[in-house]
Here is the input.
Amino acid sequence: ASMEFCGTGRIVNNRIIGNTSMFGAGFSGGIPAWSENISITIEGNLFQRNHATQNCGTMNIYGSGTTAYIRKNVIIDNSADIQLGGVVAGDSSIVIVEQNYLSRNTSTINYNGIYLWRTKKNNVIMNNIITNHSGYGIGLGSGFGLTSRAQIMNNTIVGNTNGIDANTSSNSTAYVMNNIVKNAGVEFSGNVFASNNLVEGGYAGTGNIDADALFVANDSLYHLTPSSPCINKGVNTATVVGIVLTAPFRDYFGTVRPPNSTPDMGAVEDGTWTGVRELISNHLPNSFELSQNY
Here is the structure.
């Protein structure tokens, strides 16, 4: 089924598990939101084991003039029989996707993490952990255009068959900055500008490096070890073809990035933990750790 919103919609702090969509190509197993000229917030939800018999296993945000804020969700083990297992947004939507955890979403065809198509204006994908997908972790489809701009910043993309695929039209531009892409490369065509990323296998550009990211062993949140080459190798701001890019103020956990020094690459900023930290087992919180906080 689908949800149609008027004005403003909020879907917050729900557990959406084990649903199946039996409808057409645009209907999702989790949340299919169809409408025009609305603002929708999808935040703090768990999407797990949802399935679409055609496309869009988790969510499909679709509609001219729609603005979508997709934040702090855990999106795991969703599937689609044809394509697009994870987060999908298209048809002129303006999308901000941040601080989400996506893992093991599947489909027959290759886009299973975050996929934008035929969007316009400003779109931001930042501070997400995207891991263990068959296909691309992040994709900007061949329909991405319509005078659009995408900023892909400070994501940790690990263990996917492919890392980032950005295919822009003559009227659209993608900016890729401060990301970690491990175990998979990138494929760019059109107006794509990439700087200060770690890409295993390499990619030409200012500040891009080819190295092992050196994550903490067996850590599904991909904290950096003290010897990681990603520490202090990002940039706070960069001006690319006249556009000023600014790294996100906070990281995946909401920790403030150091304002007076260079940030790390990836979604998780290195540093001493204070306060409550979630410990993850099989990608779901099962206990908490309170560190010294004085």
About this structure: Confidence is low (pLDDT under 50) at residues 272-277.
